[in-house]
């Protein structure tokens, strides 16, 4: 009887491990290809793609990484819930990269994670400095 009890407990343990470990996610772009995209510019859309999930409703979020890794340290920039169908596959538009975003962000879908990086946009000030530098060089060259 004790041996049967131990076998049942072990069986439940291994079944629990299998269900807890199912599914994987990737951040990707429009059209859900490529499967795994990790570099984004301001205005691009971040899609969360997953496969191997048990059907059901899952919570998700996108969060800036702590310290100086992100312009939004520890801030949740997007969140929601999503229903996975019987196929176990999904892909949805989770977030549009906003002005001021930069650095590393982590997508979390039911404790499955993928990081992506936002390339900062330098904006108007850097553009004007570049233009003024070019004009200054033009006048220096022309003087000679």
- What's the alpha carbon Rg, rounded to whole Å? 23 Å
**H/E element sequence:** HEEEEEEEEH
Low-pLDDT segments, ≥5 res: 1-19
Query: Based on DSSP secondary structure assignment, what is the total number of beta strands?
Result: 8
Write up what this structure looks like.
With about 140 residues, the chain is of the alpha+beta class. It has one domain: Sandwich (Immunoglobulin-like). The protein is about 30% helix and about 35% strand. The protein has a 5-stranded mixed beta sheet, with no helix packed on it. The chain has a 3-stranded antiparallel beta sheet with strand order 1-3-6, with no helix packed on it. A hairpin with a 2-residue loop joins strand 7 and strand 8. The termini are far apart. The relative contact order is 0.18.
